[in-house]
Amino acid sequence: MSDKRLVVVGDGMVGRRFLEAITERDPSWAVTVLAEEPRPAYDRVRLSAFFDGVGAEGLSLASDLPGVDLRLGEPATALDRAARTVRTASGSHPYDKLVLATGSAAFVPPIEGADLDGVFVYRTIEDLEAIKARAEGRRHGVVVGGGLLGLEAAGALRLLGLETQIVEFAPWLMARQLDEAGGGVLKQHIEKLGIGVACSTGGTRIEEVDGRLRMETDREGLAYETDLIVFAAGVRPRDGLARESGLEIGERGGILTDRSCLTSDPDVYAIGEVAAMEGTCYGLVAPGYAMAEVAADRLAGGEATFPGADLSTKLKLLGVDVAQFGAADGPLATTYLDPAEGVYAKLVLSDDAQTLLGGMLVGNAEPYPLLRAGVGGPVPAALADLLSSGEAETGLPDTAQVCSCNAVTKAEIMGAVREGCADVAALKDCTRAGTGCGSCVPMLKQLLAEGGVEVSTSVCEHFTQSRAELFDIVKVTGITTFSELIARHGTGAGCDLCKPAVASILASLGGGHILDGEQAALQDTNDHFLANLQRNGTYSVVPRIPGGEITPEKLIVIGEVARDFGLYTKITGGQRIDMFGARVEDLPKIWRRLVDAGFESGHAYGKSLRTVKSCVGTDWCRYGVQDSVKMAIDLELRYRGLRSPHKLKSAVSGCARECAEARGKDFGVIGTENGWNLYVGGNGGFTPRHADLLLADVDSETLVRTIDRFLMFYIATADRLQRTSKWVESLEGGIDYLREVLVEDRLGICAELDARMAAHVERYADEWKGVLDDPEKLQRFVSFVNAPDTPDPSIEFETVRGQRFPAGTAGRPQAGPVLLGTPERKR
Ligand SMILES: Cc1cc2nc3c(=O)[nH]c(=O)nc-3n(C[C@H](O)[C@H](O)[C@H](O)COP(=O)(O)OP(=O)(O)OC[C@H]3O[C@@H](n4cnc5c(N)ncnc54)[C@H](O)[C@@H]3O)c2cc1C
Fold first, then answer.
1. Whose CA is nearest to atom 2 of ligand 1?
2. Which of 643, 637, 638, 633 lies closest to 608 in space, CA to CA?
3. Rounded to 10 degrees, what is the CA torsion of 563, 564, 566, 567?
4. Distance 46 CA to ligand 1 centre (A)
5. What residue spans of 451-514 are helical by DSSP H?
6. CB burial of residue 368 (10 Å; 0-12, 13-18, 19+)
7. Whose CA is nearest to atom 3 of ligand 1?
8. Domain 527-601+786-827 classification at class level
9. In this model, does residue 820 exceed pLDDT 50?
10. What is the pLDDT of residues 301-312, one digit of tens each?
């Protein structure tokens, strides 16, 4: 037994990293670990995965620590620095050197009622177990805090099936990482998931009312009746032991240390979230890991110093990407905003616009690993390209740090690939890259590809199969529920990547009404309410107007409905009429009137066919050579309700003048003297692409049959959220191959594709009518589950140009997709 006694207080993420480092570098220490929690260290960063079916064991960071006396459930209660002992319930533990790694505690604002049953924090597995138990059989939860942690907690409550509301004191979400524009785009995404967001609002008092909770806020008239409240409003370092023993404390809390992690006592080190490194507390794991390495090195006789911290963060909350890296602000900035796609990006540049200093990404963080690793280097050439594909060659120098949590460079990763690491798991084992926050995993995949290794196409961690393979499995086995599919062919409980993907597959293969039984829980909010959620928490109503053709009677009905329910009306580019501003509880009443007048769902909310736009065609236009309106109506009625990997748009032009802009669509048809030309794989919006010519001068029957096959082949083989444009580009052999498959039947599958489309056409039924005829489905259309007749008081309107707008937004300049290619100097 060694006579060098080392006591470590806290077996959290950083304490555990320290133990691994010290036992490897200097096994001569006799180490005692005093740990408050009942289980060995676990991955707190991935805590939310607990709700996703990953149990405590799956999160465990327990490792083999030879010679370490680990005392679980034995918190340190006092520190006597003069006697060099730490007290616990079982006695006194003498030390020669002491390492404090006690982490942080969740901050709970001092408001009345914060200690009531049903009020929680979000820090430990026990917290999550308690939240889960409370949520059982209940419907509603409030999260106080709209930062990184609050969003995680809100995502978790949603996974538990609770209707969830975020209350955030700052004027926008993730205010520490994002600017106002980024926070606004993020809010849109979060609301689309069905999570309510109230910013510039604070809870002031909580009381118990009939077994539930009621939280009042500082906004007049706004209170939440709920079943549970989670405080996720920041953390405070657990520096109590240190304070009481007279160690020096940082100005804003935390145990003050120098760059060697030494405190004001030469025998006491502090590491992780509890340390105020030269006065700064870091709430992230990567700086903590760096401190663990420094302290271990010092105790092994080395001279390491804290290298500084990279505070970059990336969060994937239920499929929404948010990332911030390097500087969030600076003298120059290039911004990109696409409100329709919900994408915002900002790159912060040096004064001479030559060097990337940092930036933020919302809605698409694929370029994050590349951009983060490129901070301090030259500005990337084409931000829009990066955002659209994320697939550019990394072009990183060997010295670039790919994994900031574990300080792993590109050179180390490429070295591991050369030595035989053939997948991400092997790279993780070998280099530790990707084992922290996981945000560099896509980059690891890219580097594997750059190193010549073929990379997995699995949907997510719950299914090893690609979307196309899952499609085949569902088709062959006849499985009709997500739970059966994951039980037989996947692992865990599923996530926001695989659930909607499977929902779409089940719907494409005829899984009944999308709100039937278990199917309902798989849908995202838009599908959930058969309407698109708008920026102020109201919904859109978009009836189908096939080909844009409408009778005066139906126009009058739309006008009357919009007037009676106070809806904003707008004629869209897809040739129909959107009605905005509907309260969720009004949706069934509005649709009752529309359905009675012969309208049906326009599927504006679904990953399915939107509109088939048309020009006026031969009947009214002097130039038209084909009846584009009739063809557009026929196509729209044929493909309405068809669920697909991404939304589908189409258009028919009656002649080569192309007034319907058919070549910018997923499938576009243009009339010729001899029949029709068919174009596929076009795209507007974010990454415009002209569609490719698939067929020329064909008759109507051939045209429709080929579109049937094109759509069914796409639905069966495309990746999750892959647009037809990217799918066509991804096919080896491109448009020629597609022609061989769809026209010449190269794969011998045309009969099956035809049969599948025939089945779709036959079983089509209007989704809104299905809801109106079913009292159970109607029950979901309420603002507050607990008070079905109460409209949401936070929804406010103002009148502009004779119509209603969300309060505070009308007249404010709203950018379309904008790439400020030339950096703008900030004033
Ligand atoms: C839900 C969630 C998500 C997160 N996501 C991210 C992320 O994406 N990226 C990121 O970088 N960071 C994230 N973090 C923060 C990250 O988890 C922390 O930075 C990290 O855990 C800090 O490690 P630590 O060892 O300092 O503290 P902890 O992991 O908190 O460990 C401290 C340990 O000390 C114990 N302890 C305290 N007092 C005593 C005592 N008196 N005696 C004995 N034991 C004691 C505690 O019980 C605890 O087990 C997240 C945190 C949470 C809660």
1. 45
2. 643
3. -60
4. 11
5. 467-477, 482-489, 498-508
6. buried
7. 45
8. alpha beta
9. no
10. 999 999 888 777
Residue 321 structure tokens: 């990407």
CATH class of 312-392: alpha beta
Whose Cα sits closest to atom 35 in ligand 1?
A: 10
Which of these CATH numbers, 3.50.50.60, 3.40.50.300, 1.10.3660.10, 3.30.450.40, describes 119-233? 3.50.50.60
44 C-alpha to ligand 1 centroid (Å): 6
Amino acid identity, residue 759?
A: A
> Which CATH architecture fits 5-105+237-299?
3-Layer(bba) Sandwich (3.50)
453 vs 459: CA distance, rounded Å:
19
Pairwise CA distance, residues 446 & 736, whole Å: 28
Nearest Cα to Cα of residue 221 among 791, 794, 788, 806: 794
Residues 645 and 607 sit within 8 Å (Cβ to Cβ): yes
Encode pLDDT of 682-724 as tens digits: 987 656 789 999 999 999 999 999 999 999 999 988 887 788 9
**Extents of the domains making up the chain:** 5-105+237-299, 119-233, 312-392, 396-455, 527-601+786-827
Nearest ligand 1 atom, CA 105:
30
**Are 5-105+237-299 and 119-233 equal in CATH topology?**
yes
Nearest CA to ligand 1 atom 15: 284
Q: List the residue whose alpha carbon is closest to atom 53 of ligand 1.
A: 123
Q: Which residues line ligand 1 (CB under 6 A)?
A: 9-15, 34-37, 44-45, 47-48, 75-76, 101-104, 122-123, 149, 152, 238, 241, 272-273, 283-286, 288, 437
| Residue 560 CB neighbour total at 10 angstroms | 12
Q: What is the pLDDT of residues 33-81, one digit of tens each?
A: 999 999 999 999 889 888 777 788 889 998 888 889 999 999 999 999 9
CA-nearest residue, atom 4 of ligand 1: 45
